[in-house]
Design brief:
The chain is an alpha/beta fold. The protein has a single domain, classed as TIM Barrel. The strands form 2 sheets. Strands 9-8-5-4-3-2-1-10 form an 8-stranded parallel beta sheet. Helix 3 crosses helix 5 and helix 10 runs parallel beside helix 11.
Length: 295
C-alpha cells in the first residue's frame, strides 16, 4: 500500500512535471494522474506518446507509482451533444493511462439531470451501458481497467442527493453489466454526503465495502462536512476515519490510499504549496498508520 495524491489542483502555473516533484518531495509514493485535459489528449500521436510515457518514466525513476488516472468527465448536455468526440477523448485517456504505466483509470458514469434518488434509473443504466461498452475494446487493447466511481447530484436547492452509482447496489450492477475490465473506485467523501439523505443511511462505509468487496481497486480519499463535496484533507471534516479503515480492512483492501484534496490545495497560496503538500501527506500518513496497525 502506498500513499498517493492527485496531480491537479495546485494552480495554473503548476505543470505535470512540477506536480510530480511536489508530490515526491512531500513524501508521496503514488499518483492519481489527471488525464482530463483535452488539449493534452488531442496532441499528435508522436507528441502524445512522448509526453505521457515521459511523465511515466519520470515518476518511475523517482520510485513513484502511477496508481490510477482520472479520465475527462463532462456535464450531461456537453457529453451527449458531442458524444462521439467525448468517447474518443475517453479512449485517448485510456491510452495515456497505459503510457503512464498505470492499470486503472477512473471514468465517471453519465449523470442525466433527472437521475436523482430513484428517478430515471432504467434510462440512465441504458445510457451508461452503451457508453462503457464502447470502451471495452480500448481497455483490452491497452490492458487497462475502468474504475467506476460512486457519485452524487445537486438538486434545485443545491443540496446533495443520490444519483448515478451512489449506492453500492447500483454501482455493482453497472460493473457487472460490462465485463472483467470494470472495477470500483470508492470515493470516501461522496459516501459521507450521500448517506445524509433520508432513506440512504445504508450508504455507509461498512455496507459499501461489504457489497462491493474485491471490486474496490482504487480510492478517492478526502473529507467534508457531510453537506458539501469539499475535498478537504482527512480529519478536516466529519468523516469517521476509524470506521473507514475498519471497513476497508474487513474486505482485505490492499490498494493505495490516494488523496483527492484539490479544493483544499486551491486555498493554499502559491508560495506555500510545499507546506500544503506536507499537510496533505501527513493526513494521509495518519490513515496509513492506522491501516497498518488495525486488525
Amino acid at each position: 500500500m502506498r500513499i498517493g495524491c492527485q496531480t491537479v489542483g495546485y494552480g495554473k502555473d503548476v505543470t505535470d512535471e512540477l506536480a510530480i516533484k511536489l508530490a515526491y518531495n512531500a513524501g508521496f509514493t503514488a499518483l492519481d494522474f489527471s488525464v482530463e485535459s483535452e488539449a493534452r489528449l488531442g496532441m499528435p500521436d508522436k507528441d502524445f506518446n512522448e509526453y505521457f510515457s515521459g511523465l511515466g518514466k519520470m515518476a518511475f525513476d523517482l520510485g513513484m507509482e502511477v496508481g490510477q488516472t482520472h479520465a475527462p468527465f463532462y456535464t450531461f448536455n456537453t457529453q451527449m451533444a458531442d458524444y462521439d468526440a467525448k468517447i474518443e477523448f475517453t479512449k485517448k485517456a485510456i491510452k495515456a493511462t497505459a503510457l503512464l504505466g498505470s492499470k486503472y483509470t477512473v471514468i465517471h458514469a453519465i449523470k442525466p439531470p433527472l437521475r436523482q434518488f430513484n428517478e430515471y434509473m432504467k434510462e440512465t443504466k441504458e445510457i451508461n451501458e452503451k457508453f462503457y461498452k464502447a470502451l471495452i475494446p480500448t481497455l483490452k487493447e491497452y490492458d487497462v481497467y475502468c474504475a467506476i466511481e460512486n457519485l452524487f447530484a445537486g438538486d434545485k436547492n443545491g443540496d446533495i442527493v443520490p444519483s448515478s452509482c451512489s449506492t453500492a447496489e447500483e454501482l455493482a450492477e453497472y460493473i457487472d453489466i460490462c465485463d472483467e475490465r470494470f472495477v470500483c473506485c470508492l470515493d470516501i467523501g461522496h459516501v459521507n454526503v450521500v448517506t445524509q439523505n433520508k432513506g440512504y443511511e445504508h450508504v455507509n462505509y461498512r455496507h459499501m465495502c461489504r457489497m462491493l468487496g474485491d471490486k474496490i481497486k482504487v480510492l478517492h480519499v478526502h473529507d467534508n462536512n457531510g453537506k458539501r463535496d469539499q475535498h478537504l484533507i482527512p480529519y478536516a471534516g466529519s468523516i469517521d476515519w476509524d470506521e473507514v479503515v475498519k471497513s476497508l480492512k474487513s474486505i482485505g483492501y490492499s490498494g493505495n490510499l490516494s488523496l483527492e484534496t484539490f479544493y483544499f490545495m486551491q486555498q493554499i497560496k502559491s508560495e506555500c504549496l510545499e507546506t500544503g503538500m506536507g499537510m496533505m501527506y501527513m493526513a494521509g500518513k495518519r490513515i496509513y498508520d492506522m491501516f497498518m496497525r488495525q486488525i
